[in-house]
Amino acid sequence: MNVFKRRKILVTHPGGFHADDLFATAVLSIVFDGHVKIIRTSDPEIIAKADFVYDIGLVYDPETNRFEHHQKEGAGQRENGIPYASFGLVWKKYGEQICGSKEVADRIDRKIVQPIDASDNGVDISKPIFPGINRRGVEKLFLDEAPTWKEDRKNIDNIFIKQSKEVKKFLLREVKISKDEEEGCQIIMNGYRNASDKRIIILDISLPRNLYQDTLAMLPEPVYALMPGGDNKSWKIEAIIKSIGTKESRKPFPENWRGLTNGDERLQAVTGVSDVIFCHRNGFTMQAVSKESAIALAEKALIA
Q1: What is the structure's pLDDT at 134?
Q2: Which candidate, 70, 71, 112, places its Cα nearest to that of 91?
Q3: Residue 223 CB contacts under 8 Å (≥ 6 apart), including other chains
Q4: Please, which residues bridge with residue 47 across strands?
Q5: In what order do the strands lie in the sheet with 276-279?
Q6: pTM of this prediction?
């Protein structure tokens, strides 16, 4: 039986919608298990009677469930300077409850909430390297359903409600992903803490590249990470990036190893390892058949 005696009334602004109000709606729908009524209006009487008001109303008061950020004084900012938008304000109150831990809620805040809050507040968090080439944020997938300037807008409220349900599914999936990432980070950190040589981190399970790269890049010592390959028939050795956001390795594999495979006798000769499989031509990753050979390659590369 649903524990809520009546649907919670959620009020946000009418007209065109943005990621801020769309994602805030999805968060509240998760909190109340979809038992909500969404109203898009600027009617002050409806706003006054609502259970939750966000992105409208010029009041930020989490105790009375008012999550506005357009008032002159704003609604505060994070330690890194990114100001809160309504999505972030709602997530600040309910993120940990949804995720089950502060660590997972913070991970989603960094990945999804802060970029959307920054954009909604007109704050740039990245700059394009190539003129005219920009990344599209994940929120665009949901905003693309909004009518274009040439299309009829009479059904925009229904589109908003439909898309909020899609965002809800997306966020719930992100919670699952982030929980698994957090568990993976703990495995990586245990590998780091247990390493006899903290330049070579050995993991006994295959994990996503971005996870071990970003985690180890935040530590000063790691140079190479070793783990089973995806086929569990080989071992992967990968050079750690210099910092999060770059693809430049701290110490790529030696130049004379690169681009060679086990079909080329030179690879065994230059590495001194008989079961080496290949070295990428850009020098950031290698493979060997055995764990022992992977360790040997990492040790040789350190002093090469």
Answers
A1: 83
A2: 112
A3: 199, 200, 239, 240, 250, 251, 298, 302
A4: none
A5: 200-202, 224-228, 235-239, 285-288, 276-279
A6: 0.83
Q: Which residue in this structure is represented by tokens 């050079």?
A: 239
Question: 237 by DSSP, 3-state: which?
Answer: strand
Residue 90 tokens read as: 């709602």
* β strands within 24-173, DSSP E: 36-40, 52-54, 60-61, 66-67
Separation CA 36–CA 19 (nearest Å): 19
Using the structure block, give the residue that is written with the tokens 């944020």: 137
pLDDT recorded at residue 186: 95
Q: How many residues does the chain have?
A: 304
Is 286 in a helix, a strand, or coil?
A: strand
> Any residues with CB less than 8 A from the CB of 139 and at least 6 apart, and which?
19, 22, 23, 116
The tokens describing 49, both together, are 């009677």
Question: How is the chain split into domains, by residue range?
Answer: 8-179, 195-303
**Tokens representing 77?**
């900012």
**Torsion (CA) 243, 245, 175, 101 in degrees, nearest 10:** 30
Is pLDDT above 80 for 231? no
| CA 227 and chain centroid, separation | 23
pLDDT on residue 5: 63
Determine the residue type at 39: I
Q: Is the pLDDT of residue 103 over 70?
A: yes
Decide: helix, strand or coil at residue 80: coil
**276-279 and 235-239: which strand pairing?**
unpaired
List the one residue out of 76, 156, 167, 179 whose CA is nearest residue 121: 76
Q: How far apart are CA 66 and CA 57, in angstroms?
A: 8
pLDDT for res 74: 93
